Amino acid sequence: xxxxxxxxxxxxxxxxxxxxGQAAVAADLAPLSEPAPEAAAADPLGPxxxxxxALGVITNDSGHVKGIPGSDLSYSDTVxxxxxxxxxxxxxxxxxxxxxxxxxxxxxxGSIEGLGKVGKTWLLPPTLTLQYHFTDFGxxxxxxxxxxxxxxxxxxxxxxxxSDLDVKNEFGAALQVGFDYMLDEHWxxxxxxxxxxxxxxxxxxxxxxxxxxxAKLDPWLIGTGITYRF
Length: 230
Hints:
It is built from one helix and 15 strands; from the N terminus they run αβββββββββββββββ. By secondary structure, the protein is mainly beta. Strands 1-4-5-8-9-11-12-15 form an eight-stranded antiparallel beta barrel.
């Protein structure tokens, strides 16, 4: 092999080696590529929930007229639509406000039963409860609650010889138990029971004589309907 060919082959080898060396250095200096961003997590549920229920209002038939032994009162039961709004502070703790209105007929009972119907009143019983929701049962989500009720009586009227019926607005305590069964992330069905402790003072005129007493309503509110969480 000639010296010229040998020198040519050596030069080619040197160039190739230098090229590989530069490529290795470039690879070492190249910045690491950014990892592919993970898919955005699904947005969590918001804190609001609404329910629309059919609500049965079942009263305790009890009360009295002052000064008349054995006197008693009874009241009509009703079924009305009701809306409630809940706000979740955490997955377990929520506040609920129920909104609805109903009416009650008031009848004389006990020793005054023969006097017949006393009158009729509409009532608006907004109730605010603080709830604890259990979250360990999958789609079945039971809860318990306790709170306060303020019942407003309006459009009151007497019947027959009774006139000027006036049932006083009243605060009362409230206890609650119920559950939602979620059909998907947002929609569900609901069953709910509340007990209100409500015993307002009342008065009425009977044939020119003023009567007064206490109406021991203490109603059960039993409702079922649909839930929407958003």
